[in-house]
Amino acid sequence: MDPTSKLSAAQSYQDEEIVEDQFSKAQQRYGEERSKRLRKEGNDQFIDISTDLSDKFRHFQEDPWVDASAVKDAHTMFPDNRCEVLILGAGFGGLMHAVRMVQAGVRPENLRIIDTAGGFGGTWYWNRYPGLMCDVESYCYLPLLEETGYIPKHRYSYGHEIRDYANFVAEKWKIAGSAVFQTKAEKLVWDEENKEWQVELVQRRKGVPAQTLNIRSKFVAAVNGVLNWPKLPGFPGILDYQGQIFHAARWDYSITGGSQQDPSLVNLKDKRVAIIGTGASAVQIVPHLARWPKHLYVVQRTPAAVDKRDQCETDPVWFKENVTTSPGWQRERTRNFHQHFNTQENPAVNLVDDEWTHALGLVGLAGNPGGPKSVEDIPAYLQMLQTIDFPRQDRIRARVQSVVTDPSVAKKLQPWYPSWCKRPCFHDDYLQAFNQDNVTLVDTDGKSVDRLTSDSIVVGDQAYPVDVIILATGFRTPIGCTPAENANLTITGRNGASMTEVWKRDGPMTQHAVLDHRFPNLFLCSFVQGSTSPNFLFAIDCNAKNAAYILAEAKRKAAGQPFSVAPTAAAAEDWGTQVAMRSLAMAALSGCTPGYMNREGELDRVPPEEQMKMARGTVWGHGVEDFLEHVEKWRAEGNMQGIVVET
Predict the structure, then answer these.
(1) 591: left (phi over 0), alpha (psi -120 to 50) or beta
(2) I need a labelling partner for 364 at 20 to 30 A (CA). Which of 84, 184, 201, 509 fits?
């Protein structure tokens, strides 16, 4: 990668030997802090409550938001136990697949969208904690703004607005009536003779015995998201605690008081509260939470890197004059957003101009076309990334010192890892919360909580009695999981192939991440062999558009006959090779602080014989815009090269 333009800011910063010395010491500190957090259990240090078959953790994942009277009986939603397209997931991924398929000619009444939730929104349905907002500018993040004419109320939309917008999209494209909520797919089996999927569904409505349905669907889209299964910390005593406890993704306003729209947490006024975790959720929760309890303990394993956000209301006049300037404005704005960390040179104009677009080191996570071409190039590439990233992370550490008045607390809140190792955070009030007399940072020095007792959190030799515990401990990572595992179901394709088994053994065999050779008529929505973006909804929509295009073209070719559609083995093999050739650009993730992106450090321990398979199943290392150039060029050719339609 030619670092000339990317280094311009860094070069002005590094003009003294003392700065070079600081840089060297920072790299040493990064390694030391990472070592503190490495645990042999890896991802197993957490409890996956979504797959626990006992009742002991069930209350952590109960739906506090569902309106049982509004959930339709699944039997009535599948006439003749059939549908044309079954979409697994009612978040924005499912919505975008439904919208794009409707635009491609599928009638809304022939779609069915299922979800274990009680409504649309996905992560925005489940997460309703105080202070929830999107960290990507809403003018880029909310899809279909140009088509709907909707103007977001804030630069960064709050959670309840995003959920309302999801319902608005469902109504506008007449797919709201196609939803079957509190319903989960348990099993998919491909029927080669009839060219369709046999699907076992289970609906679990509140107050109603669970019911199983066996249906058939010509096509299935697996769009299950990446923030859908809350995880619990696996430290001892979590079930011994006798106070009130809940996960942040299932916020319990009956305990705290207030609501998402009015986060007046009046029930906590005389309580001692602990929030465990300091990731992206906690950064948004803490400023609101800190206003209410008698005392708040913020329990930290790894500090977040928190930059400014500059939240503001949207001026409709400004929006029309400066944002919606010409047809295609949203796509151009998003392209400009990506170009700040996906290309070798920043664009001359910065349309978004927020701190995402000034985080130069994010090329290490987002990918770029100028990455290393061989293993020998990796050391120089990593050094370049560290060099361009150091000024930002050093500024963020300095920001902590300038905001937090207690020097000892400020020191513990400083992040010592590169920008690309954890999702960057942005907030204007998080650090200030630690200046309040009723807030105590409990820093575990990378070790987490030792145990819970009936009434306390224990860290080291110190017990902290608390009345309420909030677990802001994040979600199960989809990295290293197959689409079947990510959806907690079994998928059996051609010739009895189990997706879990063949992906583990041979890796994925997709073209453009949308269709796997062994699982026809199953549209995937994953960054595996595809691409991603900090604006995750954009990446999802890329998959949705491609799936809708393939379905429409395949139906045209089949001329009304039942058919299967999938890539050839040769096309899938070629695509995997292309992915692997670009995988070296993602080398920076190796050696990161343990977390969501590297399965708590497990990816660093992949044996050499598995590394090539992992390279073939990673993301497109040249970034989302480069990925789209390939996919859109393929679509423009108009012959679906590599895709076979069999009747």
Answers:
(1) left
(2) 509
625 phi and psi angles, rounded to 5 deg? -70, -40
278, 425 Cβ separation under 8 angstroms: no
User: Looking up tokens 């076992």, which residue turns up?
Assistant: 200
Q: Residue 630: how many CB atoms within 10 A of its CB?
A: 15
Where are any strands of DSSP class E within 192-227? 196-203, 211-222
Same domain, 142 and 164: yes
Do both 98 and 171 map to the same domain? yes
440, 535: one domain? no
Q: 156-168 in b/e burial notation, b at 16+ Cβ within 10 A?
A: bbbbbbbbebbee
How far apart CA 337 and CA 347 sit, in angstroms, is 9
Q: Which of 80, 59, 107 is nearest to 255 (CA)?
A: 59
How far, in Å, CA of 164 to CA of 199, rounded? 30
Confidence of residue 226 (pLDDT cuts 50, 70, 90): confident
Are 271 and 296 in contact, with CB atoms under 8 Å apart? no
Neighbouring CB atoms inside 10 A of 32's CB total: 11
Q: Residues 82, 562: contact at Cβ < 8 Å?
A: no
217 in the same domain as 94: yes
Radius of gyration, CA atoms only, the chain: 24
Among the ranges given (438-442, 472-476, 490-494), the one the predictor scored with the smallest mean pLDDT = 472-476
484-489, long-range: CB < 8 A, 24+ apart:
486/222, 486/224, 486/226, 486/526, 487/88, 487/89, 487/185, 487/222, 487/224, 488/50, 488/51, 488/184, 488/229, 489/184, 489/185, 489/186, 489/187, 489/188
- Residues 389 and 420 sit within 8 Å (Cβ to Cβ): yes
Buried-exposed string 522-558: b where 16+ CB fall within 10 A, e elsewhere: bbbbbbbbbbbbbbbbbbbbbbbbbbbbbbbbbbebb
**What is the tens place of the pLDDT at every residue in 5-32?**
444 444 444 455 666 777 888 889 999 9
Full domain range(s) for residue 469? 230-304+430-474
Q: 365 lies in a domain?
A: no
125 part of a folded domain: yes
Sheet-wide strand order for 451-452 = 451-452, 456-459, 462-465
Comparing 360 with 294, the larger pLDDT belongs to 294
What CATH number has the domain bearing residue 272?
Answer: 3.50.50.60
What is the rounded (10 degree) CA torsion for 64, 65, 71, 77? -90
DSSP one-letter code for 591 = T
Domains in the chain, number: 2
- For the stretch 304-353, pLDDT in tens is 999 999 999 999 999 999 999 999 999 999 999 999 987 757 889 999 99
